[in-house]
């Protein structure tokens, strides 16, 4: 069999059809697996440039004004800095969670069962490289490391825990590691780690489908948020040099600009900034980029590279955030890529880029992706600074795919 040069490049660019099998264990299987689940406490003390612990608390599907006007959310905002220019990335929920730790949503446009392959890295690898502990706490996760599609309330059968709101569960690079699974816990685990003063330094918290407003409304979510955060604001251990982000995955009205009500609070927020606003352009990629800048980490080579970081952190590390013209920005649909079209390749991370603080890609990522990145750049498949497909490069990519069928024999 003979292949032309363009065929060889196309072979590198495109993959076979991707299928994913949802995992829906029976209650008896859940009980059996829970008995064998491993849970560990993992903490560390790696000093950051602006904070030593980062905690993100996720809420759901609420327009900016609706959240800002809810009395409990307004009270929470009075305890910190309201981010008036924070953007979700797309619709619906799952791609936003996915992007917040992986630097891309890979064109996902729904909430289906997805497992990104092992060669796709997340912020976990970056943190691990510098010894910064991490973990997630998912309300009503039935046991540590549970990877099922969902877990309903066993009395009312209402929606409760859902995998689509657990970003680490979406990546095989995370779920294939037993140690990392052992820090994927429920809220009982959070309460114990807090009481034992064993919280990790990078924390993702997701309430259940009732408390996050997904199946209810902002009144319910606002009350839950205030009740949850109030004792933490009084906890010296939790507050010590901690930065908390409360944000929403997406807005509710798809036809509007996808800005989401977000608040920064915690022990690192000085009293004179409480109740103020910050109009710097941020999005979910800011979470990764800020971790990189704060702990001097390598980067993922994806949209984390070009993302802005928290203003106070930018001041601490001596960089200037970019101003973004948002007049025509909407962020209400996906792009044409890997999880949207089976003919489109998994985008390679940019192995040659430097992030906002001048750091390079994680060497372990470069060693896996360098050749593929070069092939994709040579084929003009992606731009040189991002992994987003443009109209022109998509045309070139599809042409390559068609040439493969015509020139191989």
Explain this structure to me?
With 409 residues, the chain is an alpha/beta fold. It is globular and about 55 Å long. It has a single domain, classed as Alkaline Phosphatase, subunit A (3-Layer(aba) Sandwich). The protein has helices at residues 5-13, 27-36, 64-69, 71-78, 93-102, 123-129, 172-175, 178-181, 187-195, 218-233, 236-239, 285-294, 311-317, 363-378, 391-407; strands at residues 53-59, 81-83, 86-87, 134-138, 150-151, 161-162, 184-185, 202-206, 242-248, 262-265, 276-278, 282-283. It has 15 helices and twelve strands. α1 crosses α15, α4 runs parallel beside α10 (218-233) and α5 runs parallel beside α12 (285-294). The N and C termini lie close together (6 Å).
What does this entry show, briefly?
This protein is α/β, with parallel strands linked by helices.
